[in-house]
Each structure stands twice: as structure tokens, then as C-alpha cells.
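Quick sanity check, 2-C-methyl-D-erythritol 4-phosphate cytidylyltransferase:
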Amino acid sequence: MTPFYLVIAAAGAGHRSGRDRPKQFETIAGHSLLTLTLSRFLGHPALAGVVVALAPCQSPPPDFPTDPRIQTCVGGATRAASVINACRALDAPGDACVLVHDAARPFVSHADIDALLAAFEPGRGVYLVAPVADTLRDHDGRTLDRDRIHRVLTPQGAARDALLAALAAPLSATDEVAYLQAAGVACDAVTSDGHNLKITHPGDWALADALARQPGF
């Protein structure tokens, strides 16, 4: 199995979450969200190293794992800047597989990680997607063909040097794939097998807490 390195983007403020502090430090099922998310990866046999990007002057939560593979770095003013700082902090070869994951997605499965690693090629990007179940209409009331649309999730990955080069571009994008594609790097979509919920809005907390308390989580 391809060894991989992990970058966790955890420097955001999470203004939409309805909480008074960044959501990655809030608690569900007795653990901080950031620690729950990290725990999904630490048990994977192919994980070689992790860098967590935190906002300036932020410390990890009290239950942060004491795993020698984990280090932290100071994030930047944007997601791209945070991921650049984390990639630079990685002790990894330029062609190593780096997966970038949201701190607010604590339910990614090992099956999803395995599928991304199986699809990884040094010259291409990989990312998770999920089908759309709802009917979709644009603001003009036109129905969109949901079979031609998918939801984009994380992790998203590419070789370390490819990520660093792509993220340096002066774009204003919300995920790594947009930067990679703008740099001419082809990216392969991998369909997720699970929920992979991103905690974004106030109503997401109760669902996340219930899922995190399920046996076998």
C-alpha cells in the first residue's frame, strides 16, 4: 500500500458553525472534533506522518494525541497558505502522497483512504466525491441534472511538490483540486463509501454527536 502523509487544515474560524470558538476545538462524544478527525487516520497502517495547521497563538486541544508522527505548524491567512505551510513542514519526499483533510470531517473511513491511495499517481491528483441525492435547482428555478453533479469531499491529495507548486498560484479557491486543475494537473474523483459529514452549520452538531457515539466508531 502506498505510504501517505496527512495535512489537517485546522486554522479556520468556523463562523457558520454557530459556536463561540473555532469548531475544531468543540467537543462531540467527549472528544474534541480535531482529535476525533485525527483518530480516523492514526490507525491506518500506511500513515507516515501528519502536520496539523493551527491558527497563530492557538494550541492543540487538551486531548490532542501524543503520537510521534504528529507535528503542528502555524497556518496562514487562507486555507491554501495553511496547506503550503504544512506541506513545507512535512519530512517527506517531493513525490510522496499527501492527503489534505478538513478538521471538521471526523467520519472518513479507512475504505475511503484505501481507495484514494489505490488511485494515487505522482503526476495526478485524487479526491473524494459523493453522489447528490436531492433534486437541485438553480436560482432561476431550472432543474439541474444531478447525475452530472457530485459533492466534493476531502481528503484530496497529490504529490507534495505538485501541491506546493499549485497552491502558490494567486487563486481564491476553496479546495486543493481547484488549484491543481488550474495548474494543469489532472485529478481523479474517487466515490466515497460513507457519510463523511462535514460539520458546518449549527444543526450538524447533534447528528455528528450521535454518529460518534455509535459502536465501532
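Posting the structure with no commentary besides this: The first strand starts at residue 4 and ends at 10.
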